[in-house]
## 1
Amino acid sequence: MSVTGSAGALWLDSPHWAEFIATYLFLGGVSGGAYLTSTWASLMKHLMDEQNWLSRLLLARSDDRAHRCACAETARWGSLIGVLGIAVGGVALLMHLGAPLRALTFPVLFTNFGSWLVIGTWVIVLFAVWAVLETLWLHFGAELQGASGMSLFPRKILSWFDGVMPWRTDRGITWLIDTIADATRPPSRLWGGLRIIGGVLSITLIVYTAMLLSDVTVVQFWTRPYLPFIFLMSGVSTGISAALLGTVLSGGALTRANHRFCLTDDAIIVVELVGIGLLLSFLSSSPNMGAQASLTALFDTYQLLFVGGVLAFGTIIPVILSLTITVLHEFTHFEENPMGARLLTGGYATKYVLVLIGGFLLRYVVLMAAVKSPLAVQGV
Amino acid sequence: MAQEWGFYFDPEKCIGCSACQVACKNRHGVDPGPVDWRRVETVSQGEFPDYEETTVSISCMHCADAPCENVCPTGAINKRDSDGIVTVDQDKCIGCKYCGWACPFGAPQYGDDGLMQKCNLCLGEGPGSGSGQPTKKTADNGGTKPACVDTCVGGALEAGPISDLLDGVSQAAAERFGQGSSSANVIVEPTTSDGGMGPADITTPETGD
């Protein structure tokens, strides 16, 4: 029965999830998006080596050394962020739970496979396995000994441990992991197949973070298909931003790899904005009082976070910033002087940071502005 | 399913004293504070001089198709086949609060331990006490009345097998319940003081479907 304005209504408090779950949802999206970015960067690097019709179509020129290095760095950053994101996100989820240790027995305890929490848990587990293996194979191996690149900092940390530990030998932790990576690294075609499966898993992970919410049908703000679509776009966008922020830190800001990923990110952000617009339009046209209350929350209580944080600083300004950098980068000689290069690098980094902040704020306001449809008490 | 239990509520008889709320807390040892398995809410409408307030007493509705059970990852929430009462096994609950979002009535509550607790129609005493208990018996058959029903001073609340409850309600209330506007197992008596606006009803909200 629909809720009408002529009836009294009971509003129920429902702020069951807040910053921990927002962090979990955000990092789930970032992890999935970063893994996808890593896979795409690996493909680009592979195509540069192959020089076939697809590489010509995608202009993967083998003579661009900086592009090749940036692709390698992006691939490594992406897989690493995939692992770190899902690990920290998992901790954030556990911190929210009433019985976190009990939740760790999920293989036995989680029996309701109709619940998105159970589906998502297994998606996370599978994704984590894929991301860890990808990180192992990209960051470790005998051929990477002595290699440079900021993305390789995990092996540098392990090498440092090998050097300072009292039991140090020539064959330390790094050697052990290198050996495991070389022994387990699959041949190229199989690895490609595994990456495709990983890509499907990462998209499933991103979409899951929204399906978890949109399964709650008494919250119209979380309705399908709008929220899953918005989260998918935001997840991929924030994943690209996180991975490419790493590439920028590695010195790859002015490479074709970064430039292309940045423009791809812009296109995704624009599509995400369309999705947000459609959701707001749906809410504003809905007679549901909960939908109206969510709209009021977005543009009143959480106006600063939503309008300022998500829409302005999280999406619109990054796109404007990115397009400005692109114009300066492509059509001027701005990058040829050191100050110009630093400004462009800073611009890219700022854009990516803003997108990440916007992505987190999006999850936060999606949780905080969610209002359940009120109970109708007719005839009072 | 055998006899499915539910509640009956007559707003005309409710005086808003909150005795049901307090009795529930007492029987189940729920500390003073925001956790309420049953609560009395005031719904207002209109403006002076055509202003009216109605009090409603609500708790878990032991829904026929319980959304809390559907989303619970561990199966801690169980809609019992034997009597239709929705119980929670706190030994399985991980405190994710997903049920709190899914429930349209705000029934799931979370104590200091972060685990879900809610009305179990006094199958036992204390959080999680309903899980694993034998089939609920009526007071006539040696069972205990729920504390809220036992304490209600105006006779506004009743609990029992739905079929038994329907025997004693008005035709309008029975018809409204039979129309199945929601899956909540609560029969609400119509009010007559609204000048013909229609019967009072606590309905599930419009969903996003």
## 2
Amino acid sequence: MIFLAGRDRYTQRTLLRDVHDRLTRQAGCEDVRYRPSRRRPRYVIADVDPTTFLSDSYDAAAARLEIRFWYPAGVGHEYYRINWVEPERNLMLGFHQDADHPDLGPCHIQLNYEDTPIDRHGVTFLDAHPLAVLDDRLQQFPAAVETIRWESGTPSLPTWPV
Amino acid sequence: MSESPRDGVQSWTESMSARERIRAVAETLREPRSVNWISEQADAAWSTTNEELQALVDQGQLRRVEAGETTRYQPDYTRLLFEEIRTLIEENSREELRNELAAITEEIEEWQATYDVETWEDLEQSLADGDLTSAELRERRDVIAFWRENEEDRRLIKHALELYSDVEAAREQMTDVADRATS
């Protein structure tokens, strides 16, 4: 069991380096980095120019991608959080595949505002390699952020079609 | 903003070659997979995938696993372990590695104090406590995952420190030989 846990860790480190490379090649992503450190990667973070990344004009001047993949013990698939964060508006929209909301299935999309979850919807579980999953989720962000509705200064995510 | 055609989220088929994608998928597999599966995930032709996988086996990056009629591929995990150690040594000074060990210890001590437990296994047992809110459960599950990863990274970094002098000496020897060959 310990051997398996260690093995997953080398796989995770390799995977996070690939995620780092993928974001480095992505238009609109800058200053791609690891958190807390390259020696101990847990998240890959990138500063995002929304207009370039979304290929459309956008209300927020700056955003950030925060990506984590990990392999929990006793679970057959990877867990991940692929988050779009807007620090100025204190908003987070993320695809989360973890143990948090089993009622929504293995994967959900979640909108947080001022550090509070506002809306959540189940999304399709992609039975695929993590890098193929990342590719799909990144491509879904333009549609996802467009789904956010603002009313009296408060956002909501009324629906999510997939 | 610019109307450059590079704007927008590129798919990885636009930003990486088929061989790069095949390599990336194959080197991060957790279980043996077929050529079909890997070619589908990498969005690459079967024949290209098959060729690239053979090349990776020849280079010692992948292992071929025969299961009955089917051939599957998986990373060579021993090699992955040594490559991680090598990367740690090549990219970091001893001091940086020692500082990372200290940061890991500090983080674990904070969790021990916060949750009044000794190990992540103790913290895992606390998940059965019916009084925890969903936010508390989520936080504890996250800490358990980070804690396990910290312990695994600590082992890796310790290995890297133990091998540091030997790897450095071997590298210096290689540089000396190269210098003599060119002078």
## 3
Amino acid sequence: MPDKTTLQYTPEHEWVQVDGDVATVGITAYAAEKLGDVVFVDLPAAGSNIASGKVVGEIESTKSVGELFAPVDGEIVEANQAVVDSPELVNSDPFGEGWLIKVRFASLPELLSFDEYSALVGE
Amino acid sequence: MTEERFSPLHQRHLDAGASFTDFAGWMMPVRYSSDLAEHHAVRTAAALFDLSHMGEILVLGPEASDALDYALAGKLSAIAIGQAKYSLLLSREGGIVDDLVVYRTGEDRYLVVANASNREAVAAELRDRCSPFACDVQDESDDIALIAVQGPRALEILTEVPGVRVDGLDDLGYYRSAHGHYGEHAMLVARTGYTGEDGFELYLAPEAAPALWDALLETGAGAGLVPAGLASRDTLRLEAGMPLYGHELSLDTVPSQAGPGRVVNLKKEGDFVGRAAIEAGPDDGARVLVGLAAEGKRAGRADYPVFDGEDEVGIITSGALSPTLGHPIAMAFVAPDSADLGTELFIDVRGTRIPATVVSLPFYKRKA
């Protein structure tokens, strides 16, 4: 599990971990908690192009539907099949095994720091 | 903006780490741990629900039976002391003001339990409708807490809770109630609920509720009892095919559309509010409530449209991936031509058409 304080965040409750030109993206524990038990995850296919700010996936709980927004322009390198098969990983390990997509990008937009995100969600 | 209200069990919920939701102005627990774990606990063991936000309205006096026969859709005078009945409060136009459970707790005494959001409306309507009769209507909601213990192990747990005394608890029938005590406090114990499982609803003074809550949790822990929130309650009642006010039932819905048509007793003598409208029947082509079952994991949810071929024929009122059955289920209002059991329809799930079949309600029925 990555150190949460070193991750970047979006106001849509996604976390982003950058490694070279690839960003790993998941939803935060705060978002997972708000959603409740995740029972279905729909992710974009590897090879598809995504545009920052657009809805690229869905995360459904027993109670509601959350949308996955692309935090960056780029190409999907990998979607986490383990999460598709076991959606509960989003609840049990949102920053680890519950990651959702890896995106190859050309440039990264400005995202929130850990402190900024924490302030946003009031924690 | 009304003031936020808190259950007498609020501190217990805080201590248990509950998440909260605003429900009709009340801060009520939505979940303690996991919606699914709480749901499964009710199906396999037992769970506790705090329902202290519900409205409890007493109707009492020599003409209480006659008054309720006039005020409500069912024949309340026909139920015996100790019996409960699901009923409807109809508008003059035949719409549903609220769905209620009515307990006859004495010869001239009834307890009407209303949805939290409709408490004031129900109390006001009952006062108005009962005024020509020799009876009193008293809104006791602030003086009554309600704890539900639901699940196949509910009886075994309740029997063992220290301080709970209810004569004949073992033999108490479904939709029956009995007077009991918790310590020094009087308690009404009813074998009713809203989850599709066996279980009990315990009505008692707010000041006694925290100690009873603790005692139930302690006694039931070994049997798998957990506290459960409103999120699991919603998936449980959906599986059990129970309509929810604001979803399946509303002022714009007449009973025959939404399933509780049988609750309306047109055979009972005398007038009751809404009778003329009900006798006239709903408009031709009025949509009817059906159950829908689908495959996969993607659930249709409230307000999603339903299609028969290319025609939009209805709308979902409640839907979820059923935790017990493992596939999506929904209740929907659809055109009568598309309502036959086995009809193949489509749910528009955010732009994707998901095939769904009309099935009978309830989706889940416990084994006797």
## 4
Amino acid sequence: MTKHILVIDDEADIRDVIQMSLEGFGGWQVMQGESGSEGLLKAKTKPFDAIILDISMPEMDGFECFEQLQADLQTQMIPVILLTAKALPSDRRRFATMGVAGVIIKPFNSRQVWKQVAEILGWNI
Amino acid sequence: MKILLVEDDRSIAAMLYMTLTAHRYAVDLASDGQLALELLMQWDYDLILLDILIPKLDGISLCRQLRSLGNQTPILMLTAQNSNENVIIGLDAGADDYIIKPFNPNQLLARIRALLRRGNNATATVLSWGDLCLDPTLMKVTYKQQEITFRPKEYTLLELFLRHQERIFSRNAIIDRLWSSDQLPSEAAVTTLIKDLRSRLKAAGINQKAIETVHGLGYRLKAAPKMQVQETKGEKETVLLRSPTSLLKSRLPGYESESEVGDLPEIMLVSEDAVQERFRLSLEQRMRVLEEIEVALQTQELSPKQQEYGREEAHKLVGGLGTFGYPKGSEIARSIEHLLKNNSLLKERQTTRFSQLLADLKQEIALPPTPSNQELCSNSLVLAMVGDAAFTKIRSQEAARWGLRIEVADRSTVLHRLTQTTPEVILLALDGDGADNPLTLLQTLKADYPTIPIVILSGKDSLEERVAVARLGVEQYLSPPVTSTQVFEALIQALPPLPTIEPLETKVMVVDDDPVMLDTLAQMLRSQGFEVICLAQPDRFWALFTTTHPAALLLDLEMPTYNGLELCRVVRQDPRYSQLPILVVTAHTDNESMRRAYAVGANDVLGKPVVEAELVTRIISRSKPLSQAVELDLNYLTNNDKTYPGD
């Protein structure tokens, strides 16, 4: 079964790199969302296997977007991986306790990020 | 250019449709707000022409909904009533401009052109590329002042490329923009159109290939002849990629498709180069934003809004530059982000600093990117040498939630692993497995890799062991029973601090009941680039302190109601602030007063009158990570009186 992943980030470059790594190397299928609100709409369009969510976005940030995903029965079961720039201990503590599947710290290695995703989600590659 | 016309009055819609298509716009028509919204979810439009009074979902609500979804397409309202109120509500709901019916078609077209210009952040009324010029008002194209004639579709395609220079358009994107939704040509039609446009440009005397094929992505206008886009060097690799459009044409009214709703678009080949190239272009745009800030700073015209925008762009550079092979550039961008984060606008000294950072960054990105390093993963690497039992709980999946990655080594392989990889922190279990002195390995690690922090997971809780590892400079010591959460907590605490935060963004809170003294201290600190919070009433201390989160405290010792010692004690009682640098300012620098200040937890005592240079030096030195201070104290103990607790 092909995995479907939704990537929510306001930066087109980062979305493209992740998409390239996940589709090209991982063989999965990626849909892009360019804002928190668009991501929330798209998250309901199909049963995604994972969502990769950027923390720092204008308007609706990743924290708020995650809360809304959790509040919706349709999306609350989808594992979420956060994308964040290098974080302070206090931020890391917050990520660890909010109930996400994992965190990927930027800058990531564009060739290897798909492996990070697989490892966090326990997918066999 | 593609326009969505939302109008329920058939005669007006027909008239507008004729006018717009005659001027080379592709037009989609929606007769109610609901249909308009559905179309907008599926297609990209360059502009929306929106009647306010439409059925199902009125124009104002449609505006609001679009804007709340982050859709920034320019909206031109058509309003019948000459009622200011309606216009104001519409503009506040997110519309960009309005025109009152009945209107002159030429005026409508001029407003559309103006909005389309605005959408592209361009102010030029004539689009140009080298000596090629396109005037949208006259619908005329010239090359070296000679007019070139085009067929309508060729003209609109050229206009599309000229409006969005540097942007890559896939065949699908071109179809979306040049044809209305009821006409769906094949992709081959686009290939033909590109070929025709190219030969027409060539016939006009443009020697080089103006429109280039970006393998696997689509087409793009080459950089104008006078500009040089830097080539990125990197090993080429072709991977499979789907086109990131998610058009569900099958949901369009009147369009029958064989594919299921939600089918992903076709697979195509894309090269890493294309993504790199796209990054290059966005990088240039972001640098321009920072350059504009530099100009605004020099002319003292920087607005808080522009500063905030610059901060956002710098933040994006932090992530982007690292990913694309500029780790050092990423760090410089981080400093720029910090600099712009200040709540107050930048001052002269910071302006100089900004220019310097920007120059460094330009220098950095002028170099070719370094190929991505061997690190497989960006999360902080923890090298763990743990026996089995204590630590099998810790699994990589849990580590990922903390932004960590764990690699397990054993005693025999650890030193070899360290020659190949540099962990950010080492986790070492001391379970005295009897083999040899467990401290031997620790000594070796500290001697060979003094900069890598170490967290000790002890099998027992002995003071002797604690002291022994403390003397070796170990950062954290955990004794049983210990939960995996506690282990992670210790690991993230031990991680090296983020690149130095510059003093100029350190927030210092000064508490002094003497307004003159308060002002003097604040002046000194501000002149050095610190952000200062002043408080003259000690009884309001706690509320202000806990809401402003200063990075250092400067307390006057002699104050009414609560004196500096009492405030110091209160802060130290709260575990959250156990490491906050506190400096006490006093006129009494006799030993007894000093001793009392240190006893309640002050880090430093400054005598009045305060000397500016000394004040700043002390604040900066006190803001250093505690681990370094502890190390100094330990050295002091071991070198001087050879005593330590527990002797």
